[in-house]
Amino acid sequence: MARRTRADMEQTRATLLAVARQLFSETGYAEASMDDLTARAGLTRGALYHHFGDKQGLLAAVVAQIDAEMDERLKALSDQAPTPWDGFLERCRAYLRMALEPEIQRIVLRDARVVLGAREDERCIASMRELIEQSAIVGVDAEALARMVHGSLTEAAFWIARGEDDAARLEQAGAALDLLLRNLSPE
Fold it and tell me: Domain count of the chain?
C-alpha cells in the first residue's frame, strides 16, 4: 500500500469537513448518515474515523470551523467601527443577526448544543474582552463583563434559532441587548 502524503491527508480532512458541513446543514446531525457522508465524499469510514474519531468528533470540527469564520466576520465588523465601543455594539448585534443564517442556526445553535453540550468560545470571549478594555468601560472587570455579555448573546441566539418567528425574536433580542448595554457606554 502506498503511503499517503501530508497533502493527501489534509485534502481528505478538508473533503470530509466540507461534505459533513453541507450534509449537517441540509439534514441535521441526527439524520446525517455516516454511509451517506462517506459516499458523498468518495471516502471510507476508516478515513472519517482516522481524522475525527467518530461522527461527534466530525461535528465538533465542523462547529470549530464555523465558529472561526463567525469570529473573523465579527472581528472585521468591530475593526471597521469608528470607536471600540461602536465596534463592541456592532459585534453584539451582528452575532444575534447570525442566528438567522440557516447553516449557523442548524449546526451551531441547534445540533451542536444538543450533541456537544455547552461550549465556551474562548476566542470570541477574548475578542470581546479586548474591545471592552479598549472602550474604557470603568468599574467592572473586562473578563467578567465579556463572559456575561457572551453568555447573554449566546442564550439569545439559541432562543432566536429555536423560534417559529425568528425575525421577531431577533428584534426583541436586539431591543433587550440595547437596554442591557445602555448603561455601560463610556460616552
Answer: 2
